[in-house]
Amino acid sequence: MTQPRCGAQTLRGRPCTKPAITNSSRCQLHQGGWSGYGVAQRKKKEAEATMRKLRKKK
Question: Mean pLDDT, the chain, as a whole number?
Fold first, then answer.
């Protein structure tokens, strides 16, 4: 079984070929807290938490 590749866009515009971290779709370089991917993941989790809160209030 081969490990999936990161695939994030590099500065040269090509997809990253580094292996992805376990339980993630990005490599160490592209999964950082302030990368576009990290920010999108955080916003998604926050939106889900907000929706759960709203549903609970009803």
Answer: 87
Q: How far apart are CA 14 and CA 17, in angstroms?
A: 9
Give the helix/strand (H/E) hosting 34.
none
Give dist(CA 35, CA 6) in Å, integer. Answer: 13
Determine phi and psi for 15, rounding to 5 degrees: -75, 145
Q: Which of 14-18, 21-25, 44-48, 50-54 has the lowest mean pLDDT?
A: 21-25
pLDDT in tens, 9-29: 988 999 999 999 888 888 988
Q: Side-chain half-sphere of 3: how many Cα atoms within 13 Å? A: 13
